[in-house]
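[agent] plan:
  1. take the single chain provided in the ticket
  2. run structure prediction with default settings
  3. attach structure tokens to the ticket
  4. add a short note for the reviewer (M.T.)
[agent] executing step 1
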Amino acid sequence: MLASMNDDDEVRTERRNVTPLPIFITSLVQQWLLEDAPSFDFSSSVVADRLATGILWQKSSGVVAGRPFFDAVFEALGCQVVWNRTIDGIGEVEGQFWTDADVSEAGGKRALATVRGPARRLLQGERTALNALSRCSGVATRARQFQLLCREHHWAGTIAGTRKTTPGFRLVEKYGMQLGGADMHRVDLSGMVMLKDNHLACIGLELNRPADDALVIREAVRRARACAGFSVKIEVECSSEASALAAIAAGADVIMLDNMDPSTFCRTAERLRQQTNGTQAHRYLIEASGGISLETAPAYMCAAADIISVSLSQGYGCVDFSLKISFTDP
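[agent] step 2 finished; step 3 output follows
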């Protein structure tokens, strides 16, 4: 079933406009292709190098995500990709959710794009392109599931994907989060300062104080601000109400209440709001984090919470795609 045209389509279009710079995609794709064929490709060599056409099929439910990477693989191999317009004219396929339960599509699948080029090149790029598309779509689909939970529970906060990404594949997974409707959180270490328990523990050792001591937290935030400047936000991981209040007083922009059960989190977040209401405390955000799943997320969606961070790039299911190749008539 295709989503109807509404405000969500405008948001989807805006999110689709946020794509990695081509130079980074090209570099990434080159690494993938070299990994797959660092010397010879014996399998493709047995095929006549005639012009061929490949049809990209979506075979399972999910959000389509990863077109920039799919296209770049075949462009690097001298092939051309043409994407189909969606059913009922609802904009681009990229970012769109489709379910294989839609009986209007023959055989529970639908054609998304056509790839044309030399047969050997199509074969060389096939698996690499499908892997990227399948996994990116899986992350986007998981992000969409969390967004649907937010709507169901009338929670206006933000779902954010953590930095627990696959080494060498972060760009794809973060793009999938973005297209699925989640926030990418910090894309890399330069995106935001996050002072976690180990950072605080190290400074605590220097000062001979516990990691959650107010003086340690204040010193950590001070150092972070001195290093990163005014334009970079600072987040502090807190395990208690007292450490959270210390982080707020120190000027942290985001307070992460980590590894708290839902009731403790909501109670702590509400008390923080109450204790800083009407004071000179700056505006801060409260984030829930630590092992939150689709099943437990609704319990964290309280009025005092701004952000729920989850590991969108771990444990997701891949969306099934295939590329069926045939020779192009001369």
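[agent] step 4 note for reviewer: The longest helix spans residues 119-152.
[agent] ticket updated
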